[in-house]
């Protein structure tokens, strides 16, 4: 199990450089961010530097928590699936789950928890129905093992594989609104014709989603300013600071 | 200023320094209501205080610890209890920081304690010493900082009972501590822990040489009672696995059972050694008073049953203050679950907190044993804030 975690971490590490720049584009400046499974804190320290966010981490491995702390970021050792109970409702502007949802025991509960503690959730996930995987299954008749999915079926930490379509369907079922979706191959952003992504469920290796609760109804002004400001990279506070909330 | 103090059943005399007398102008009001003035605190410092006095770190010692955290103890002649942590180029770097470690009040290494002379009777306080609390210990430390004219601590760090002091610092003087680092500690002393302390106290009091606490006046010494108290407590500092690995059922210096009440097993011999070496360095009445202070510690009940209320003052007065909570996986005296509760309370107050549980095999005492994760985490916190 320990070994699997390490392998998982290495894959996440490779992907993170690429991921973090894209995720960073989805995060507004001067907000409060929780990275669930923050690893050694690379994404958070990137966000702190680029977006001046109030960064917090949750990570299961003690050694990685210590590395996060060494980067000047506060982190708690805990299991993302059990320990989000640490956090009160609406404690963050964003909760990020990078390349992990497919390894959770209960992805549905995970998403609900994320949107309990944060106004927005950012989720990046591998797309299992990428055409190469489909071809592999069609031709070989075995579960795909490749650069992006380096595990054999019996030792994979990924227990809940899904496709981009599957994830979108789950968001729909949970009544979560997908505010942004970005499709990627391992090296670049998927760019379709006229800005429309063509068959992402077939061509994308990864998807990154910014989701929020549908029932969250900000004023029109607030909603407008959110998109404008994110796009312009402006500084603003998304949610009411905890200190100003009634206890 | 140095002072001489007598230790152990033979009343051997040792010189202890440095000592400073505090509360000379204004008495310190203890939690039990009594006022104390002109009382001694013994301390050690390491490193240099910088010009703007911003590099001070207070180290709080545990139950029977002392101020000699990074230098030789004059009584035991042993290295400081946190020598692997504090020093030149070490995790708590004396090239960068000014480290202060003072003996808690009630403890017998030079600070105001039951051995001290009561000015009213000209005899040792013994059982006339007031009941003290962890808060009182911290108030005395605060007076020591005033003596150094230090207004803000870069960090307050303490293990076990020292961690309780660190937590009290964040409650009494939230604006004065940038980093609060309790290690292997808790927000309250659990009923199980109180039970073990009470066994220890009763062992001391049952020793006829305790003389209702007046042994100093009668020149006796409750060595056996104090040794039993230490033996009991020492079991709680280890873990069952550690006992298996270290001693098992091995026999001490023999191949067959003696069929007598002599020490047969290594573990018995080890406990006897721990117990009887303890009496040479520690005072029985000090042990009674300090264990009582620790038993009284309960932040939850102090703040109307809601632990988070204990930290609202910190949240208000120290917006940039941080906590780092460190516990050990096989510590059953102060289990990680209790630190988890503190973590939750701090998050509820929107205080920046880090927390880790270090994999350990030495039980509660793990914080006194060299450990890379412990060193890395503490140096990381100190360097980045």
Structural commentary:
The complex is a heterodimer of chains A (247) and B (385). Chain A has 247 residues and is of the alpha/beta class. Chain A contains 8 helices and 7 strands. Chain A has a single domain, classed as Vaccinia Virus protein VP39 (Rossmann fold). In chain A, strand 4, helix 4 and strand 5 form a beta-alpha-beta unit. In chain A, helix 1 runs parallel beside helix 2. The C terminus of chain A is likely disordered. Chain B has 385 residues and is of the alpha/beta class. Chain B is globular. The longest helix of chain B is centred in the middle third of the chain and has 16 residues. In chain B, helix 3 packs antiparallel against helix 8 and helix 5 crosses helix 7. Chain B has 2 domains: 269 residues, Rossmann fold (3-Layer(aba) Sandwich), CATH 3.40.50.1820; 99 residues, Orthogonal Bundle (Rna Polymerase Sigma Factor, Chain: A). Classes of the chains: A alpha/beta (247), B alpha/beta (385). Chains A and B meet through helix 3 and strand 3 of A and helix 11, strand 16 and helix 12 of B.
DSSP E strands of chain B, number: 16
Distance between the termini of chain B: 35 Å
What helical percentage do the residues of chain B reach? 25-40%
Query: What is the annotated CATH architecture of chain A?
Result: 3-Layer(aba) Sandwich
CATH class of the largest domain in chain B: Alpha Beta
CATH fold-level topology of the largest domain in chain B: Rossmann fold
Round the mean pLDDT of chain A to the nearest integer and report it.
82
Mean pLDDT of chain B: 96
Quaternary structure? heterodimer
Could you name the ranges of chain A where pLDDT drops below 50 across 5 or more consecutive residues? 223-231, 233-247
- Major sheet of chain A: size, sense and barrel closure? 7 strands, mixed
**Largest interface here, residues on each chain?**
A-B, 21 and 26 residues
């Amino acid at each position: 199990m320990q070994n699997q975690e390490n392998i998982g971490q290495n894959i996440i590490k490779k992907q993170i450089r690429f991921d973090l720049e894209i995720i960073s584009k989805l995060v507004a400046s001067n907000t409060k961010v929780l990275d669930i499974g923050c690893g050694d804190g690379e994404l958070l320290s990137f966000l702190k530097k680029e977006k001046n966010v109030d960064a917090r981490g949750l990570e299961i491995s003690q050694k990685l928590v210590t590395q996060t702390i060494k980067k000047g970021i506060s982190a708690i050792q805990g299991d993302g699936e059990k320990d989000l109970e640490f956090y009160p409702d609406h404690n963050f502007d964003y909760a990020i789950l990078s390349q992990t949802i497919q390894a959770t025991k209960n992805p549905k509960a995970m998403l609900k928890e994320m949107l309990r503690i944060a106004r927005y959730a950012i989720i990046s996930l591998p797309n299992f129905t990428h055409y190469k995987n489909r071809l592999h299954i069609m031709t070989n008749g075995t579960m795909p093992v490749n650069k992006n999915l380096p595990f054999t079926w019996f030792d994979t930490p990924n227990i809940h594989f899904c496709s981009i379509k599957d994830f979108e369907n789950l968001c729909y079922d949970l009544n979560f609104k997908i505010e942004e979706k970005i499709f990627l191959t391992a090296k670049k952003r998927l760019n379709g014709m006229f800005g429309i992504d063509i068959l992402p469920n077939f061509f994308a290796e990864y998807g990154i989603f910014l989701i929020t609760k549908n029932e969250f109804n900000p004023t029109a002004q607030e909603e407008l300013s959110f998109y404008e400001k994110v796009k312009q990279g402006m500084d603003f506070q998304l949610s009411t600071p905890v200190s100003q909330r009634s206890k | 200023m140095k002072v001489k103090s007598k230790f152990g059943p033979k009343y051997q005399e040792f010189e202890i320094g440095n000592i400073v007398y505090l509360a000379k102008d204004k008495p310190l009001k203890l939690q039990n209501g009594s006022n104390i003035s002109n009382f001694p605190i013994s301390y050690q410092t390491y490193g240099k205080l910088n010009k703007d006095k911003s590099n001070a770190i207070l180290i709080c010692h545990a139950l029977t610890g002392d101020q000699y955290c990074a230098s030789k103890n004059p009584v035991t002649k042993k290295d400081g209890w946190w020598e692997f942590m504090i020093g030149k180029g070490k995790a708590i770097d004396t090239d960068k920081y000014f480290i202060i470690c003072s003996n808690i009040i009630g403890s017998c290494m030079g600070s105001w304690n039951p051995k001290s002379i009561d000015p009213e009777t000209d005899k040792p306080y013994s059982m006339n010493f007031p009941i003290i609390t962890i808060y009182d210990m911290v108030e005395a430390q605060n007076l020591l900082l005033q003596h150094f004219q230090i207004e803000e601590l870069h960090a307050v760090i303490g293990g076990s009972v020292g961690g309780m002091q660190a937590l009290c610092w964040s409650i009494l003087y939230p604006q004065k501590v940038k980093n609060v680092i309790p290690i292997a500690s808790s927000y309250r002393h659990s009923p199980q822990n109180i039970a073990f302390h009470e066994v220890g106290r009763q062992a001391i009091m049952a020793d006829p040489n305790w003389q209702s606490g007046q042994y100093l006046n009668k020149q006796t010494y409750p060595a056996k009672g104090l040794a039993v108290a230490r033996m009991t407590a020492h079991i709680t500092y280890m873990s069952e696995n550690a006992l298996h690995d270290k001693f098992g059922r091995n026999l001490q210096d023999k191949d067959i059972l003696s069929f007598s009440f002599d020490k047969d097993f290594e573990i018995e011999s080890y406990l006897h050694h721990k117990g009887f070496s303890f009496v040479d360095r520690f005072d029985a009445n000090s042990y009674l008073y300090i264990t009582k202070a620790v038993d009284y510690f309960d932040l939850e009940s102090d703040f109307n049953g809601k632990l988070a209320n204990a930290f609202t003052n910190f949240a208000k007065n120290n917006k940039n203050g941080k906590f780092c909570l460190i516990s050990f996986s096989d510590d059953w005296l102060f289990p990680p679950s209790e630190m988890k509760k503190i973590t939750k309370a701090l998050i509820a107050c929107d205080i920046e907190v880090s927390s880790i549980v270090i994999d350990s095999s030495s039980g509660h005492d793990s914080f006194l044993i060299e450990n890379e994760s412990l060193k890395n985490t503490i140096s990381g916190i100190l360097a980045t804030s």
